[in-house]
Amino acid sequence: MPDAVSAPADPARRPRSVYGVGEEPEVQASLANERTALSWIRTGMALVAGGIALATLASFGDLPVVIIAIAGLASLGGGVLAVWALVSWRRVERALRRREPLPSPSALPWLVGGVVAVALFLAVFSGFEALQAVP
After folding, report:
1. Where are the membrane-spanning stretches (predicted)?
2. Is residue 52 part of a domain?
3. CA trace torsion 60, 63, 66, 70 (10° rounding)
4. Confidence (pTM)
């Protein structure tokens, strides 16, 4: 029986662009890559759910259009994050199979920048709303 680490890739497994290259990686590394991708997908789903909740809340009251815009951005960001999770999983899995250095997390700086931008925007918006409420 061949060693699981050095066994050639199974051409019948899909996607072939991932499983058709290199050798089987260590199980722990492959499963850690999968868990990371699933965590990013859960984060994307949470953003979509938050966007839906904000859009629903906005439909019940006279809320500023900025809330609806944030709902749309959250939903769009969640979808983009889920797609990025799949792309990142494929890149890392191929690197593991080829015994190459792991690629850097390309979307993480964008995600952090987006969170900081939304936080700053909400802080400024809240400040203006508070100033308008003062008689």
Report:
1. 40-60, 66-87, 108-128
2. yes
3. -30
4. 0.75
